[in-house]
Design a protein that fits this description.
The protein is mostly beta strands. It has one domain: Beta Barrel (Lipocalin), CATH 2.40.128.20. It has two helices and ten strands, in the order E-H-H-E-E-E-E-E-E-E-E-E. Strand 8 and strand 9 form a beta hairpin. The longest helix is centred in the N-terminal third of the chain and has 9 residues. The protein is globular.
Length: about 130
C-alpha cells in the first residue's frame, strides 16, 4: 500500500549520487548543488488516489502529482522534461522517467522504518536513505 510512504522524510545518507547525476547528464554546477542539498521528501495521497511527492531543499522545491500506472509529463529538478510513470510493485514505488531515448528508474521502498530511494541509470546505481520526521 502506498499509505506506508505517506509522511515527511529527511535525507540522512546518499551513496554514489554524483555518479548517478553524471549518468543522467546533469552538469557540474547543478551536481554541486544536488550533492549539497539535503532534501525533505513529503509524500501524500488524497481520497481520489492522487499521489504527491514533494522534494524540498534550500535550493529548490519540486512536486509531482500522479495516479499510479498513469503516464504524465514531469520537469525534473535538473530541468529534464520526461514522460514519467509510477507503479506500485512488490511493496516498492517504481518511477520510470523517459527522455531523449533514455530511461532512468527510481525505486522507493520502506526498509527497517527507513525510506530508501534507489536511482538506476544503465549500470550506475545511487542509493539515498531517508528517515521519517516527527
Amino acid at each position: 500500500m502506498v499509505e506506508q510512504f505517506v509522511g515527511t522524510w529527511t535525507l540522512t545518507a546518499s551513496e554514489n549520487f554524483d555518479e548517478y547525476m553524471k549518468a543522467i547528464g546533469v552538469g557540474f554546477a547543478t551536481r554541486q548543488m544536488g550533492n549539497m542539498a539535503k532534501p525533505d521528501l513529503v509524500i501524500g495521497v488524497d481520497d481520489a488516489g492522487l499521489v504527491s511527492i514533494t522534494s524540498k531543499s534550500t535550493f529548490k522545491t519540486t512536486e509531482i502529482k500522479f495516479k499510479l500506472s498513469e503516464e504524465f509529463d514531469e520537469t525534473t529538478a535538473d530541468g529534464r522534461k520526461t514522460k514519467t510513470i509510477v507503479t506500485f510493485e512488490n511493496g516498492k514505488l517504481v518511477q520510470q522517467q523517459t527522455w531523449d531515448g533514455r530511461k532512468t528508474t527510481l525505486e522507493r521502498e520502506i526498509q527497517d522504518g527507513k525510506l530508501t530511494a534507489k536511482c538506476i541509470m544503465d549500470d550506475v546505481v545511487a542509493v539515498r536513505t531517508y528517515e521519517k520526521g516527527a
